[in-house]
Amino acid sequence: MKNETKVMSVRDAIIMAMSEEMRRDENVFLMGEDVGIFGGDFGTSVGMLEEFGEERIRDTPISENAISGCAIGAAMTGMRPIVDVTFMDFIVYMMDNIVNQAAKTRYMFGGKGQVPVVFRAAAGSGVGAAAQHSQSLEAWFTHIPGLKVVAPGTPADVKGILKSAIRDNNTVIFLEYKAQFNMKGEVPLDPDFTIPLGKAELKREGKDVTVVTYGRMLERVLKAADEVREAEGVSVEVVDLRTLMPLDKDAILDSVKKTGRVLLVNDAHKTGGFIGEIAAMIAESDAFDYLDGRILRLAADDIPVPYNARLETAMLPDVDRIKKYILKLVNKR
Amino acid sequence: MKNETKVMSVRDAIIMAMSEEMRRDENVFLMGEDVGIFGGDFGTSVGMLEEFGEERIRDTPISENAISGCAIGAAMTGMRPIVDVTFMDFIVYMMDNIVNQAAKTRYMFGGKGQVPVVFRAAAGSGVGAAAQHSQSLEAWFTHIPGLKVVAPGTPADVKGILKSAIRDNNTVIFLEYKAQFNMKGEVPLDPDFTIPLGKAELKREGKDVTVVTYGRMLERVLKAADEVREAEGVSVEVVDLRTLMPLDKDAILDSVKKTGRVLLVNDAHKTGGFIGEIAAMIAESDAFDYLDGRILRLAADDIPVPYNARLETAMLPDVDRIKKYILKLVNKR
Amino acid sequence: MAKSKKEKNQAISKEKLLHMHKLMCDIRNFDDKVNYMVKRGQVPGMTHFSVGEEAANVGAVAALSDGDFITSNHRGHGQTIAMEIDLNEMMAEIMGKATGTCKGKGGSMHIADLDKGNLGANGIVGGGMGIAIGAALTQKMKKTGKVVICFFGDGAVNEGSFHETLNMASIWKLPVIFYSINNLYGISTPISKVINIDYNYKRAASYGIPGHFIEDGNDLLAVYEKFVELVDYVRAGNGPVLVESITYRWYGHSTSDPGKYRTKAEVDEWKKKDPILKYKNDLISKGLATAEELDAINAKSMESVEASVKFAMESPEPSLESAYEDIFAD
Amino acid sequence: MAKSKKEKNQAISKEKLLHMHKLMCDIRNFDDKVNYMVKRGQVPGMTHFSVGEEAANVGAVAALSDGDFITSNHRGHGQTIAMEIDLNEMMAEIMGKATGTCKGKGGSMHIADLDKGNLGANGIVGGGMGIAIGAALTQKMKKTGKVVICFFGDGAVNEGSFHETLNMASIWKLPVIFYSINNLYGISTPISKVINIDYNYKRAASYGIPGHFIEDGNDLLAVYEKFVELVDYVRAGNGPVLVESITYRWYGHSTSDPGKYRTKAEVDEWKKKDPILKYKNDLISKGLATAEELDAINAKSMESVEASVKFAMESPEPSLESAYEDIFAD
Ligand SMILES: Cc1ncc(C[n+]2csc(CCOP(=O)(O)OP(=O)(O)O)c2C)c(N)n1
Ligand SMILES: Cc1ncc(C[n+]2csc(CCOP(=O)(O)OP(=O)(O)O)c2C)c(N)n1
Ligand SMILES: [Mg+2]
Ligand SMILES: [Mg+2]
Known about the structure:
The complex is a heterotetramer, with two copies of chain A and two copies of chain C. Chain A is α/β, with parallel strands linked by helices. Chain A has twelve helices and 14 strands. In chain A, helix 8 (217-232) packs across helix 12. Chain C has helices spanning 14-39, 54-61, 77-82, 87-94, 129-141, 160-171, 191-194, 220-235, 264-272, 275-285, 291-314; strands at 69-71, 148-153, 176-182, 185-186, 189-190, 211-214, 241-246. In chain C, helix 1 (14-39) packs across helix 2 (54-61), helix 1 (14-39) runs antiparallel to helix 10 (275-285) and helix 1 crosses helix 11 (291-314). Helices cover 42% and strands 9% of the residues of chain C. In chain C, strand 6, helix 8 and strand 7 (241-246) form a beta-alpha-beta unit.
């Protein structure tokens, strides 16, 4: 098993990561609405009830405040809960517990206690679920000291990052993307396979332009990078953050210093989104002096997510727009 | 009364603004915990119960979800509620209503309906209230299309902006600062005095450095600007945003183009804060080409707010640090 | 909507009896059709159906008068049709067209027509409750004499918003009827697994308000008569009430639902309790209408649903620019 | 903390009787002192006092055994002292010193000692309830036999978290006692203005759990005996209970409170119902202790409070670097 891989979906990678960690550590358990016999709103716990039983695959009432609070209290006393938030939009009802409690507990209590909870939140648009079921709200959490935030973009990264998140002794907000549960890729089968939090990965090495991205947009960025390399000979370096907080600043800055040009891409609303923080971080760093052009951003437009599929699609960066921006940076268009 | 002014505190400016609007429009009313006989947690409705009675100065249970939801439903049907959130930290319990309901109502319903509510939230640290009572969370709301966000920094601006917020047909998050309720200044007595939302003001004109700020930090920025001008002859232009959303981009960019150097200052946690958005906006604009140096940020450190007063103070930009950064930008230090 | 609040004490007019039948048929036919289209990929997004719950919806709304309000939830088609929102516009909305109630921007979960007293379907469980009490507060402050029905499911009763809004409505004596349509499940989760009492309407006691129970939510006249009583009570300024009716949804929770959590036998059992069939038999046996009359209404309803599909199909997609409109009010 | 859960059926040992007196005196003296210092600007931040509520706090905690847990709220000094947290460290915390329970980073509203089963005072009304049921879930999953008391006020009962957590604890039969200390006001707002029933403990019925009432929350033995019973019940795996006691806070809500919402007469009336005096008279009249013994305990308590002030005053301020520590666990 050590070096074996298998092609599987993000959904299956999530199930595998949770199941392995639950086998490994009896303190790990999953709770949330319809995680049991239903197998999760997005099928991300199908089969787990059968293996782990009702105590550890815990169906809850529709009570997001109690779910999140209960997870935190359990974590403070020795358990390691995973919460299936389902649609990230519902995290609005968990804000006190995540922001005022989990993030601050250890600090307020002078270094005592820890809150190892993973909140798995299905982010983003792409399934025709409209304004209240399509948000990517990671920027709320990256702003709060004491929280870790991760958003892997491939099935393998999903497995490795989720396992690290479960093992981490802090509260982790884990973004998974509704539009990508069926996305497939090679995933290591080794139950010891993990990916450290806080480390970005160069998914492509390049010298002309740096593109920094994470989560859902990685797929499109890679496609765009490959296409512009192919068609225009532009060498794009793709920095896949995977972890937003703690942020791997060095990976970003090193790449920017190398290429002198940078495009930031994510799927949250542009204004106030996390890529704004990255732009600011670059602009105040010594990498600024290496910049050959503006720091460009591509993100979701600043509108609530519309229901109509064409409109929903249009508000997001697509491969063409990403390519256009890359070429703009190298003055090819 | 037309051109008269009076020196008064921020607290009194708030009371005056609300009272004038309540006299002017019978649909305006105030609701929140202890707004009645107690006069508000911060004294911001003292005396109003006596003038307007219990129906319009409405004490509520400790039920932030119901308070915010009720305000929104009332607004959708013709009223214009003002909600005293008290400590901004408690807005965690209002997130669904503000973000999923108020911000999206008009859009989701295809342009029907409006939600004229003002949420007055006491932000920031400075009163020894520790991690759960000291946050400035404006960045959560500037990220959500459909909301307006304002943060005036002088008693006169507080009056003028609050009145415009009450008259606005959209949901407005109004930041007031716990540490500044007693701050005094000249305030116009004219009940027709308002300040338009979405317009920044140059609080100082200058040519060497632009400092963009808002809210609580304005006072410190002005002091720093005056002191460096005095002591070092550095001419600082201070752009006071007052409104964060909609953002007066032109005011910022024009100033940056003029000075070529920019410092951004606020009192929220640095990472993911709203000034990061401003930095990103500058870095992707044509003003980038005018920059003579990095875009610097000064904000609260990325730690939960500690109780101890010295620690609480140290985590915030003070006049000296602001001066140091200004001088850094002009290479004087 | 009923025009008179006195109706309880009078015989219900034949016109009204038949109209309620029509509305139930509309709901059934509309949702059957949408379900059919969903299965064929002709509906672009998430939907939730009211089939099986027609009486529970129509009976409640039928007790309202012009100018009254409702708030609805994700399973809103039934309430919305009962509120006489245009079928063409509803179908167009579900198909994401520019002619839809929400110009194609809201979709199934947000169908509403604020101009007609429907303050919104809501994608957030418990999300409409605050809006409902706020609308009721306006009626009280402005002394309009209008009332609000706040619709929600059995699963929603464990949201904090339920507790906070019932309490606030009670202490302020707001004219709102909290109405839990108990279809026994929240997605896959049986209500018996998530509350430790038999029926949720009993929670009214916590707020010092009356709790009412409609044991057979598939009995249109029982629902209607109860709501006439409740609307009267609430309109008279007595403060809010909580009412619960028992019914069942025939289809899965939403667009895709493997349905492992309930047996076919259970579903079949409930299909026998078909609210439309029951009402039809009722009217016929009481001599209030003939089978022919009722069937003709259904046939017409099917036609109007087909027409709504045609309307929707022929309607234009919203323009890309329209995505950037309607965010802020002037 | 009591070591035996059988105690209810036995006479309470004299040692325990006197120890409970000591704890009440500690709360009184500690908070009197802090209040004195607040008035002189010697305390840097927000504080809330437990004076008047000593019996309601001590009687509850005294029924716990080692290894049990509490969650507390903004008015946490009383519970924390009852949990035997070190007075020196508490005073140092309130003065923001490095030697404080939270190294000066938490302050009055967050005094806690997680190592001693105190899962935190909490600045968010209702914020500790989720933590309480989570701690109870751990006990249940790990079969530790330990229980949790979740402390909150009368005002907190209208938070959504109250509803959601009581329900969840009930359906999962978690070992937690929800304890509302009803001091008649939430800041300035009388409980009678914000609920439409007489007592909140009756809301237990909504969750299918027992509701208990302690009419005189200033009667230490009444509180203690009720809690011995409840702790037994909960520890035996019967699921949660809700209990409410009536008491009164003598001081204002927090550091600054003009107190216009209640009359001096009312405050004076309640001061006559002093829980410490009552207990003292009780013990003396039953011949269980002498006035001298009790006064000596109080005198010693005052000394320890003075000593805590000295300790706190002499303690160092936390270093600036310390502000940047303790954010993440390894
Ligand atoms: C706050 C929130 N949590 C969870 C969901 C996901 N969700 C949508 S419908 C539903 C079940 C609702 O059950 P019920 O209230 O009984 O209504 P029904 O669907 O049975 O009509 C859930 C959990 C949601 N939309 N909003
Ligand atoms: C979520 C939240 N809302 C409001 C407050 C402000 N607040 C602090 S204490 C308090 C009153 C609490 O009343 P009660 O529960 O009766 O406790 P008491 O202070 O009387 O002990 C309020 C409203 C808060 N801290 N948290
Ligand atoms: Mg249901
Ligand atoms: Mg109280």
